[in-house]
Amino acid sequence: MTLTGKVALVTGGSRGIGQAVAVELARSGATVAFCDIREPDPAVAQSGRYYCADVGDRASVEQLFSDVLREFGRLDILVNNAATNIRRPLVDLDVADVEKVWAVALWGVFHCSQLAARQMVKQGSGSIVVISSVHAERAFPNNTAYNGAKAAVNHMALTWAAELAPHNVRVNVIEPGWTDTPGERSFYTEEQIREQGKKLPLGRLAKPAEIASAVRYLVSDEAVYMTGSCLRVDGGVLLPG
Q1: In the chain, % of residues over pLDDT 90
Q2: How far apart are CA 40 and CA 136, in angstroms?
Q3: What stretch of H or E contains 62?
Q4: How much is the pTM?
Q5: Residue 79 sits in a domain of what CATH number?
Q6: Residue ranges making up the domain that contains 13
Q7: Is 115 within the bounds of a domain?
Q8: Mean model confidence pLDDT for the chain
Q9: Which end of the chain is more exposed for a tag (fewer CB within 10 A), N or C?
Q10: Quick one: pLDDT at residue 190?
Q11: Is the pLDDT of residue 120 over 80?
Q12: pLDDT given at position 234
């Protein structure tokens, strides 16, 4: 699954799933650019070109794409990974909470995908992957904004797949289940993650590298006939219990 000669952009690439994706695409031969609002750790910094950008801000995204295209001249792969979450019951949510989540997890996907699609249509080819979530399928409580954003990006991705197919631009979705990322430490202790993981069908949380492998497949020529697809990598979380 060589990606030699391809230029990839990964959003939210400084840690977690985004970091694993950036590392995996670089390992597979792609030239990788990645953006985040936080500095990357050394493991991912060696895999690609880092850009500080907030995907929830249109001007920041426009500058990001301008910089990437000026430096690399093209864009073959976009991985929409950046997301954030605020977990509160509906009755306790502030409008600002919802706006913050949607700015990144919903509008960020729109901004990046639109600018990537414009470039890919000019080139006559490209691949866009949206990192969604099983939250798009199951309404986990206390996740109003995140659940809504993930359901929305799934449907937007299908719309884009239909629109862009004549231009040889593919759009696909990956739905990870519970994944062992630094962000989970904002909500759970190490012991809780370990104990709750044992209750999952495969007995553990996913590793970011396992999500990255699915991304690599979708953007490779091995998946050249796939568009408008949703690949669930959840360890069986949504299986009937």
Answers
A1: 88
A2: 28
A3: helix 58-72
A4: 0.95
A5: 3.40.50.720
A6: 7-232
A7: yes
A8: 96
A9: C
A10: 83
A11: yes
A12: 96
Please list the active-site residues. Answer: 146
Neighbours of 159 (CB within 10 A): 12
Burial class (CB in 10 A: 0-12, 13-18, 19+), 241: exposed
Residue 23 CA from chain centroid, whole number: 14
pLDDT at residue 241 greater than cutoff 90: no
Both tokens of 107, joined, read: 């509008």
SS (H, E, C) 113-125: HHHHHHHHHHHCC
The type of residue at 31 is T
| CA 116 to each of CA 69, 87, 120, 171: distance values in angstroms, whole numbers, following the listed order | 10, 30, 6, 11
Count of structural domains, the chain: 1
Q: What CA–CA distance (Å, rounded) separates 87 from 37?
A: 21
**Dihedral of the alpha carbons of 153, 149, 130, 112, in degrees to the nearest 10:** 80
pLDDT greater than 80 at residue 181:
yes
Determine how many CB atoms are found less than 10 A away from the CB of residue 142.
Answer: 15
Answer whether residue 42 shows pLDDT above 90: no
Asked, for residue 241, whether it belongs to a domain, the answer is no
Residue 88 domain flag: yes
